[in-house]
């Protein structure tokens, strides 16, 4: 069997794994082969699993919830340790916005459909506000930082190297630290047929993920150079960002399922997803 692994720029573990050969080695020990499918938008991971384009993928916390809402039968396979400093909701230093409640009526740039939606929706919900009605969420882009600094938008969710670069430049303030609202884990999932019919393949891939994370933890400079060459930005900012990550792959826990369920409930209540989701349905069935 050839197992197709999805890789996109927003998942650092899979990004490194695609370049290190560990997945190929782990699958070869089972007599199987690995193939990589690169795509640009992690939000599409559930759909790509469902139509058979990929067999295994990884994202932040939001895409698996929206995949379930779309009717895709996914199964969680592994999660990263919490990433409390992976991203932040930023405002200008001189902004009158001092609390999340002050975002009401404002425009927030973020990667809609990614973990950033989870962050903003949960922070607003905790403050008694609604993602659907109390802010204007807009998909961020290369000009988001400039628009924030010029006052064209109210806030911006930055992550990784762009967050490190913005902080190095100065003039911005952290309104919400990610770890104060959500755990922001990397999440790895597959289709139910693969999880239940070939569990040994999933176990091999999780071993490969752990090896990739161990490599990144031991070689932050090399990992940063790889990311900068592929995605742009300064290697020093990438190294700052990558050193802030835990580089630990864990089993799916009840705590994680409860947090995902909380996110799913907020998404449904605000209309971000159009039907209720039971996150526990995406766990392996007990035999």
Automatic annotation (TrEMBL):
Show where the Solute-binding protein family 3/N-terminal domain sits. Answer: 2-219
The protein's matches in Pfam families, at most eight in alphabetical order, are given as: NMT1 (PF09084)
Gene3D superfamilies membership = Periplasmic binding protein-like II (3.40.190.10)
- What InterPro entries does its record include? Solute-binding_3/MltF_N, SsuA/THI5
Protein family according to the UniProt entry:
Belongs to the bacterial solute-binding protein SsuA/TauA family.
Q: In its UniProt entry, what is this protein called?
A: Aliphatic sulfonate ABC transporter substrate-binding protein
Q: Which organism is it from?
A: Streptomyces hydrogenans
